Protein backbone atom coordinates (compact mmCIF):
# COMPACT_ATOMS: atom_id res chain seq x y z
CA UNK A 1 0.00 0.00 0.00
CA UNK A 2 1.35 3.39 -0.98
CA UNK A 3 1.04 6.19 1.56
CA UNK A 4 0.92 9.93 1.01
CA UNK A 5 -0.11 13.28 2.39
CA UNK A 6 -2.59 15.80 0.97
CA UNK A 7 -1.73 19.10 2.66
CA UNK A 8 -4.57 21.50 3.49
CA UNK A 9 -4.29 25.16 4.42
CA UNK A 10 -7.09 27.64 4.94
CA UNK A 11 -8.21 28.85 1.52
CA UNK A 12 -7.62 25.55 -0.32
CA UNK A 13 -9.72 24.73 -3.40
CA UNK A 14 -12.18 22.05 -2.29
CA UNK A 15 -12.66 20.21 -5.62
CA UNK A 16 -8.93 20.00 -6.28
CA UNK A 17 -8.34 18.51 -2.85
CA UNK A 18 -11.36 16.28 -2.35
CA UNK A 19 -11.85 15.20 -5.99
CA UNK A 20 -8.24 14.04 -6.09
CA UNK A 21 -8.57 12.39 -2.68
CA UNK A 22 -11.73 10.55 -3.75
CA UNK A 23 -10.11 9.09 -6.87
CA UNK A 24 -6.98 7.94 -5.06
CA UNK A 25 -8.91 6.29 -2.22
CA UNK A 26 -11.14 4.44 -4.70
CA UNK A 27 -8.11 2.37 -5.77
CA UNK A 28 -7.91 0.79 -2.29
CA UNK A 29 -4.16 0.67 -2.93
CA UNK A 30 -3.29 4.24 -2.05
CA UNK A 31 -3.57 5.49 1.52
CA UNK A 32 -3.92 9.26 1.44
CA UNK A 33 -4.25 11.25 4.64
CA UNK A 34 -5.42 14.86 4.65
CA UNK A 35 -3.16 16.98 6.83
CA UNK A 36 -3.95 20.42 8.18
CA UNK A 37 -0.79 22.51 8.16
CA UNK A 38 -2.06 24.38 11.23
CA UNK A 39 -2.67 23.01 14.72
CA UNK A 40 -6.44 22.83 14.06
CA UNK A 41 -7.91 19.84 12.22
CA UNK A 42 -10.70 21.96 10.71
CA UNK A 43 -9.59 23.72 7.53
CA UNK A 44 -11.72 26.32 5.74
CA UNK A 45 -11.80 26.03 1.94
CA UNK A 46 -11.82 28.94 -0.50
CA UNK A 47 -15.59 28.60 -0.93
CA UNK A 48 -16.34 28.49 2.80
CA UNK A 49 -16.66 24.71 3.23
CA UNK A 50 -15.01 23.53 6.43
CA UNK A 51 -13.22 20.18 6.11
CA UNK A 52 -11.98 18.11 9.02
CA UNK A 53 -8.51 16.88 8.09
CA UNK A 54 -7.44 13.39 9.13
CA UNK A 55 -4.69 14.93 11.23
CA UNK A 56 -2.65 18.05 11.89
CA UNK A 57 0.93 18.49 10.70
CA UNK A 58 2.29 18.18 14.25
CA UNK A 59 0.87 14.63 14.40
CA UNK A 60 2.79 13.24 11.43
CA UNK A 61 6.36 12.50 10.50
CA UNK A 62 6.68 14.58 7.30
CA UNK A 63 9.30 12.19 5.89
CA UNK A 64 6.98 9.19 6.24
CA UNK A 65 5.26 9.05 2.88
CA UNK A 66 5.61 8.05 -0.75
CA UNK A 67 4.10 11.25 -2.17
CA UNK A 68 2.83 14.71 -1.37
CA UNK A 69 -0.17 16.58 -2.85
CA UNK A 70 -0.60 20.35 -2.83
CA UNK A 71 -4.07 21.58 -3.88
CA UNK A 72 -4.64 25.05 -5.26
CA UNK A 73 -6.77 27.96 -4.16
CA UNK A 74 -4.93 31.30 -4.14
CA UNK A 75 -5.18 31.90 -0.38
CA UNK A 76 -4.49 28.24 0.37
CA UNK A 77 -1.39 28.29 -1.84
CA UNK A 78 -0.18 31.49 -0.15
CA UNK A 79 -0.59 29.72 3.20
CA UNK A 80 1.12 26.52 2.00
CA UNK A 81 3.99 28.51 0.49
CA UNK A 82 4.48 30.49 3.70
CA UNK A 83 5.10 27.26 5.64
CA UNK A 84 8.76 26.28 5.99
CA UNK A 85 7.67 22.72 6.79
CA UNK A 86 5.69 22.49 3.52
CA UNK A 87 8.55 23.93 1.46
CA UNK A 88 11.12 21.67 3.10
CA UNK A 89 8.85 18.66 2.66
CA UNK A 90 8.32 19.34 -1.05
CA UNK A 91 12.07 19.71 -1.65
CA UNK A 92 12.89 16.61 0.38
CA UNK A 93 10.32 14.48 -1.45
CA UNK A 94 11.51 15.72 -4.84
CA UNK A 95 15.18 15.14 -4.06
CA UNK A 96 14.46 11.62 -2.81
CA UNK A 97 12.49 10.76 -5.97
CA UNK A 98 9.16 10.62 -4.17
CA UNK A 99 6.02 11.92 -5.86
CA UNK A 100 5.41 15.66 -5.70
CA UNK A 101 1.98 16.60 -7.06
CA UNK A 102 0.46 20.11 -7.28
CA UNK A 103 -2.55 21.61 -9.05
CA UNK A 104 -3.81 25.07 -10.07
CA UNK A 105 -1.80 27.78 -8.27
CA UNK A 106 0.19 25.27 -6.18
CA UNK A 107 2.78 24.47 -8.89
CA UNK A 108 4.02 28.04 -8.27
CA UNK A 109 5.42 26.77 -4.95
CA UNK A 110 7.32 24.04 -6.80
CA UNK A 111 8.60 26.58 -9.33
CA UNK A 112 9.84 28.90 -6.59
CA UNK A 113 11.72 25.97 -5.03
CA UNK A 114 13.41 25.07 -8.33
CA UNK A 115 11.53 21.76 -8.58
CA UNK A 116 10.09 22.67 -11.99
CA UNK A 117 13.43 23.72 -13.49
CA UNK A 118 13.90 21.81 -16.75
CA UNK A 119 10.49 20.12 -16.39
CA UNK A 120 7.26 20.31 -18.36
CA UNK A 121 4.42 21.48 -16.14
CA UNK A 122 1.00 23.08 -16.12
CA UNK A 123 -0.80 25.38 -13.69
CA UNK A 124 -3.45 28.07 -13.52
CA UNK A 125 -2.38 30.78 -15.98
CA UNK A 126 -0.38 33.51 -14.27
CA UNK A 127 1.17 31.18 -11.68
CA UNK A 128 4.09 30.02 -13.83
CA UNK A 129 7.30 30.11 -11.79
CA UNK A 130 10.80 28.71 -12.22
CA UNK A 131 12.64 27.62 -15.34
CA UNK A 132 10.40 24.85 -16.60
CA UNK A 133 8.30 24.66 -19.75
CA UNK A 134 4.65 25.59 -19.25
CA UNK A 135 2.25 23.37 -21.25
CA UNK A 136 -1.44 24.32 -21.47
CA UNK A 137 -2.96 20.88 -20.71
CA UNK A 138 -5.21 19.45 -17.99
CA UNK A 139 -2.49 17.47 -16.21
CA UNK A 140 1.07 16.45 -16.99
CA UNK A 141 3.79 14.27 -15.49
CA UNK A 142 7.51 14.85 -15.81
CA UNK A 143 9.55 12.44 -13.74
CA UNK A 144 8.24 12.32 -10.18
CA UNK A 145 6.35 15.62 -10.56
CA UNK A 146 2.70 15.83 -11.62
CA UNK A 147 0.96 19.16 -12.11
CA UNK A 148 -2.65 20.03 -12.86
CA UNK A 149 -4.06 23.08 -14.62
CA UNK A 150 -7.11 24.05 -12.54
CA UNK A 151 -10.22 22.89 -10.68
CA UNK A 152 -11.92 21.71 -13.87
CA UNK A 153 -9.06 19.23 -14.38
CA UNK A 154 -9.03 17.77 -10.87
CA UNK A 155 -10.05 14.30 -12.08
CA UNK A 156 -7.42 14.39 -14.85
CA UNK A 157 -4.87 15.31 -12.18
CA UNK A 158 -5.99 12.48 -9.86
CA UNK A 159 -6.03 10.04 -12.77
CA UNK A 160 -2.47 10.98 -13.73
CA UNK A 161 -1.38 10.33 -10.14
CA UNK A 162 -3.03 6.89 -10.16
CA UNK A 163 -1.37 5.92 -13.44
CA UNK A 164 2.01 7.10 -12.14
CA UNK A 165 1.71 5.26 -8.82
CA UNK A 166 -0.14 2.08 -9.86
CA UNK A 167 -0.33 1.91 -13.66
CA UNK A 168 -3.08 2.24 -16.25
CA UNK A 169 -4.90 -0.91 -15.09
CA UNK A 170 -5.60 0.58 -11.66
CA UNK A 171 -7.28 3.55 -13.31
CA UNK A 172 -9.33 1.25 -15.56
CA UNK A 173 -10.54 -0.69 -12.47
CA UNK A 174 -12.11 2.40 -10.89
CA UNK A 175 -13.54 3.93 -14.08
CA UNK A 176 -16.88 2.04 -13.97
CA UNK A 177 -17.62 3.50 -10.55
CA UNK A 178 -16.56 7.01 -11.50
CA UNK A 179 -18.36 7.09 -14.85
CA UNK A 180 -21.52 5.22 -13.91
CA UNK A 181 -20.78 2.31 -16.20
CA UNK A 182 -22.20 -1.17 -15.69
Report what the structure shows.
The mean pLDDT is about 95. The chain is globular, with a radius of gyration of 15 Å. The protein starts with a strand and ends with a helix. The protein has helices at about 15-25, 75-80, 85-95, 105-110, 155-165, 170-180, and strands at about 1-10, 30-35, 40-45, 50, 55, 65-70, 100-105, 120, 135, 140, 145-150. A hairpin with a 2-residue loop joins strand 10 and strand 11. Helix 1 (about 15-25) runs parallel beside helix 5 (about 155-165) and helix 5 runs antiparallel to helix 6. With about 180 residues, the chain is an alpha/beta fold. About 35% of the residues lie in helices and about 25% in strands. It is built from six helices and eleven strands. The strands form three sheets. The protein has a seven-stranded mixed sheet, sandwiched between helices. The protein has a two-stranded antiparallel sheet with strand order 3-4. A two-stranded parallel ribbon has the order 8-9.
